Amino acid sequence: MADRFFQNVMPDFVPENPNMIEEEVGGNRGRVQIHSQGTQDSLLRFLSLPYTSLSQQLQRAALDLKETIVVETWGLSRQRVDDFSLYAGTLGTACLLFKSFQMTHNKNDLSLCLEIVKACDSASTQSRDVTFLCGRAGVCAIGSVAAKHAGDDKLFDYYLSQFKEIKVSKDHPDELLYGRAGYLWTCLFLNNHFGKETIPATSTGAIVKEIIRNGRKLGKRGGCPLMFEWYGERYWGAAHGLAGIMHVLLEFELSSDELEDVKGTLKYMIRNRFPSGNYPASEEDKKQDALVHWCHGAPGIALTLVKAAEVFGDKEFLQAAMDAAEVVWSRGLLKRVGICHGISGNAYVFLALYRLTGIIEYLYRAKAFACFLLDRAHMLLATGEMHGGDNPFSIFEGVGGMAHLFLDMVQPKNARFPAYEF
Fold first, then answer.
1. I need a surface site. Which of 106, 253, 258, 278 has the fewest CB within 10 A?
2. From CA 417, how far away is CA 340, in angstroms rounded?
3. Where does Zn(2+) bind (predicted)?
4. Of 240, 180, 170, whose CA–CA distance to 204 is shortest?
């Protein structure tokens, strides 16, 4: 099992050293001099930096990485889109450019974002996938938000009208990555940006009811109020299972009995977690305590438990989220870099708990994971000790996720796991 992650030998807490100043290297003031990158000393130096200094370094690293990602996914492909999705494809580059624009107000990033979205729009016209992460819904959502920021009302109307033409069929599953929950998340995204009735409750309510109806049907066979299947397996995690579906349902106005079913489902998961505090990948896999990913295991479930603690004000959910965060701290330095099943995604567990509790140690832990990546990710990827993902420049599998995390670390109170948290 240890071959999945690097041993975390970072101190539980390192106070910032206000007397530590950045050194001038080659006439370029502002870059910290690291004599032996990838050592314990170099990592401790990053951890000791005042947060303002560290955040500047993280932002520089993110913007440099963004340029590389644009070249690799857009320039070298001669602006051809093979995979349009946000999860592993070209739309992820557009999403990163928009994130950069929000941070720096660089209009070139916004223009290029819209250019890439236009190509993804053409590539996705025949897609039956309806979700933010893997479907045409994500293209229309990113396109509408970018168009609004560019002041192009005609383009905004086009993307919004295109989204409204997307239909969820009986054949779609209920999960987040490819199913109804992922479609509903896009509706929430649009309402969050443009007003709560942009996609009215009359459009989303029937889908919410269908998800709950399906969950109750399967839940009757076991001790869990709601249960869902994806390709015959009853998953628990964020991408395909209970955590992702519950997370989306908690964003909607539910009846009291529906809320009780969501609450009961999450408490069922807590009761049946592993002694370590980690969670099974599925009902069928309750003996293998191995995965500590957003998609399967403690990280994605912890984010949902944080949301549940906010909604219900129930200390059991907060404590379970904190217990899951301990698993992420001890086993979450994965030998992968991305958001879905890598260090970048796992850092968001600590950011979510810091946002909810204000406990500075959680910010430190997020900073520690980011510093680990800043200090040695490129070296570990080059030597093959860390896996770059099947799509190495994407957000959810590759270094795009690391760039996204670095940008979020600049304003940690505003950080949200992309395409999952609001």
1. 253
2. 10
3. 295, 340-341
4. 180
Classify each residue of 223-258 as buried b or exposed e, where b means 16 or more C-beta atoms within 10 Å of its C-beta: ebbbbbbbeeebbbbbbbbbbbbbbbbbbbebeeeb
Rounded to whole angstroms, the Cα distance separating 166 from 172 reads 12
Q: CA-to-CA distance for 321 and 306, rounded, in angstroms?
A: 6
Q: Could you tell me the sign of the dihedral formed by the alpha carbons of 248, 408, 91, 341, in that order?
A: negative
Is 341 marked within a binding site? yes
321 CA to centre of own chain = 16
How many whole angstroms separate alpha carbon 174 and alpha carbon 168?
Answer: 10
Residue 28 is inside which H or E element, if any? Answer: strand 28-29
How many residues does the structure list for the chain?
422
**Token pair listed for 57:** 């370094």
Q: At 65, is the pLDDT very low, low, confident or very high (cuts 50, 70, 90)?
A: very high
Q: Is the dihedral of CA 329, 1, 398, 188 positive or negative?
A: negative
* Cα 394–Cα 73–Cα 85 angle in degrees, nearest 5: 50
Is residue 261 within 8 A of residue 212, CB to CB? The reply is yes
Are β-strands 28-29 and 24-25 bridged in parallel, bridged antiparallel, or unpaired?
Answer: antiparallel
* Of 228, 190, 187, nearest in space to 204 by CA: 187
Residues 6 or more apart whose CB falls under 8 angstroms from that of 2 comprise none
Task: Kindly report whether the global pTM for this prediction surpasses the value 0.85.
Answer: yes
What are phi and psi for residue 336, nearest 5 degrees?
-140, 160
Query: Alpha carbon 19 to chain centroid distance?
Result: 34
Residue with tokens 């399906």: 214
Residue 59 to residue 47: CA distance in whole angstroms: 16
387 assigned to a ligand binding site: no
What's the token pair of residue 348?
Answer: 């968001």
Structure confidence by residue, pLDDT tens digits, 15-56:
999 887 654 333 344 444 444 677 888 999 999 999 999 999
* Structural element, H or E, at residue 25: strand 24-25
